[in-house]
Design goal:
2 copies of one chain form a homodimer. By secondary structure, chain A is α+β, with helices and mostly antiparallel strands. Chain A is built from 15 helices and 23 strands. At the A-B interface, β2, α2, β3, β4 and β5 of A face β2, α2, β3, β4 and β5 of B.
Chain lengths: ~475, ~475
Amino acid sequence: MAEPILTPQAEDFPKWYQDVVAKAEMADNGPVRGTMVIRPYGYAIWERIQSAVDQRIKAAGAKNVYFPLFIPESYLQREAEHVEGFSPELAIVTIAGGEELAEPIVVRPTSETVFGEYMAKWVQSHRDLPLLLNQWANVVRWEMRPRLFLRTSEFLWQEGHCAHASYEDASAYATKIHLEVYNDFLQKVLAVPTYVGIKPKSERFAGAINSMTCEGMMKDGKALQMATSHELGTNFAKAFNITFQSEAGSSEFCHTTSWGISTRTIGGLIMAHGDDKGLVVPPVVAPIQAVVMAVRDDEAVHAACRELVLRLQDSGIRAELDISSGSFGRRATDWEIKGVPLRIEIGPRDLAVGEVTVARRDTSEKAQVQLNTVVAHAQILLEDMQRLLYSAATGHRDSNTHDVSTVEEAITAAQTGFARLDWKTVDGAGETVLKKEAITVRCLQRRDGTMPISDQEPDLVAIVAKSY
Amino acid sequence: MAEPILTPQAEDFPKWYQDVVAKAEMADNGPVRGTMVIRPYGYAIWERIQSAVDQRIKAAGAKNVYFPLFIPESYLQREAEHVEGFSPELAIVTIAGGEELAEPIVVRPTSETVFGEYMAKWVQSHRDLPLLLNQWANVVRWEMRPRLFLRTSEFLWQEGHCAHASYEDASAYATKIHLEVYNDFLQKVLAVPTYVGIKPKSERFAGAINSMTCEGMMKDGKALQMATSHELGTNFAKAFNITFQSEAGSSEFCHTTSWGISTRTIGGLIMAHGDDKGLVVPPVVAPIQAVVMAVRDDEAVHAACRELVLRLQDSGIRAELDISSGSFGRRATDWEIKGVPLRIEIGPRDLAVGEVTVARRDTSEKAQVQLNTVVAHAQILLEDMQRLLYSAATGHRDSNTHDVSTVEEAITAAQTGFARLDWKTVDGAGETVLKKEAITVRCLQRRDGTMPISDQEPDLVAIVAKSY
């Protein structure tokens, strides 16, 4: 048997991840430490993620804008927790246009501060609220232990920034974004089930009064934070003087929120569905849903392949033609590594009987299908695969989430999956004990699995795990 | 008569531009010198520009990628002309992660160098060529005299970077991008006619052997460079060792190209079509094509407005509802400033007779139209307006382009428009004389108006003008 192309997951999961990112041509390390070059296949997945998230954000009423990359250093210092949280990770421009700058400039690690400054100008009256803004941008946070997609010194994301008239409005809108934009996208597009909850105080965003999270379980049982939404209370409104005249005529501080999802989700997609043969890309987010491969270098076969690609594309399937002359086995392995949902193979013998071979990436099933019905067949398989990936990931998550009673049991459970236990058992000293084992509280939930309004609710449970 | 809201164009064109950018809520100055905050209305136009250009780029076969914002300073130094051209404009990061960096990092002013480094890794054989890549990104060039959209220290753009096996392939593909992506987009989407040609040597991109340009004429008779495509010869291939094994087995340098279009085009859109009442946005690129306004605060009127918006949207027209309670005159003026192509006004008297008032932004014509046929009417008006804006801009350009014989005549003509004269009359000393008058050679063309292959062709004409 041939040497496996990828390190098996069971042997060394981080090495498998590195291998698959390289071999599937998703990304390369950039020349500056911790930066990333996203290659065409990786970027095509990101474009589909962007489009799905952007549609949902627009449906939720927020409008896209673009704020500058450069933020005066003094802005960050206006919110005490914020500057403390981000200072160690900043990249700072000190020279521009050939001269030393009088005030150093920070390359945005996130944009609450600069949005705050302009919200203060744009919001005058309660009639200007809510102000619902979003931007797609790159941000920079210096990373000591970079990993492609998961932790990079520069990453791509969207960051929403909103101002509301009351705590209730702000909380309700951030929750709506969290559930109807992020969690809906993660489930329906990436096929990743999540635990949705709020962060304990120790894990909140710097400057927030509440942080919501969607936590996915990767194939190695570790957690990945896949999206976060923050209620900032009046902290940034006070730091940037974002006030409005209420209906009653008084001047009030706005309640602001921020929320983001990033290229990190691509890492989550890889680790939630990939296997020893490579990526497994859910059909909804797959740039190529079906590749039509010529088994032999034969003109009649090529013509049939070309025609089938057009028929698939006409019916809305993202199909790609592979009639290249390399070894068939090697080409098939490459498409497998890239996680393309369906391989449709056509050879001279297939053609003679009017059939094609359809291979499914997730189950590895192969079937002979009539050439004249293969398009309808492919549509059914793609829908089935999207469903099955979600239910397989849900099964994996559920069977690796253990209800435990003590911090010690949680430590044991977190070696291979998640532990769930009463928050009051962990709160305080328990968190410190867990952290020594590189385990954190990923989120707090109500006992029925729904998201609490605040960590002050009684009877919460904590989901704890090792994480990326 | 009320005070005009905008400075009239004839009085002070730059002030008019500033006024309209602010009053139409397109953009604000950022906090760091020369940076820009693109507001929702401005960004919605940019999204439509992106989408139109991206579709054309994909149709031309290039694939999107994302390269890092940060480039090692040493990369820029590898191509002598390139570093000389960009050094004065660089923003440099010297501190990151709390420490002084051993090698300073440049915030990308453009990405030829870093693409070059990875092309060298990815290209091995002639089978890997052509390598056709593109990225949508922000870039930074420190600006001493910033102007929103036109010259900003940070701007958004796409930059294509390709490697080819021969000079001919590189030249043909760059030309295809220039004509079929950029010029087609400028004409059909932005409705801006251009002079397409090549730059004289003095105006070439730093490191290029040939630079193609699309030059638009603004309403004040000045030129705006709206898109450029560069042939880089083997300059970057030699600097970054981008080589391939030819079919014959020899090692050869690639021929590379780069090409870009930026948020600057929004400035061009404003100055090519705007008038004393504000923006005039061509329907194809307009985020809002028709606004349906209630003339009175009346429930039956509101209901009719809502229903009409849905009917317009169902037929693919981007329609917006305005049933706000402010003064009708003020609201109408605001939509006029924003350049929305059609205002459809409904009042109680209109409703009684089953009619609406349709006001066209470009001609200011108003007509009474049957409510039940207004959707079809609007479609016709939008198509007509797109055509008319293009032909009006073409008429303006042609009547302000003067064929002259001497450099002195060119200087006179360039006070109010463009001058066209034999390139051999300008080449050399003429360029220096023009530059003293802040006039430059915008492009070189063949006598029939087509684009030459190189400035070595005989019998070229020069288009000269003042410019942004």
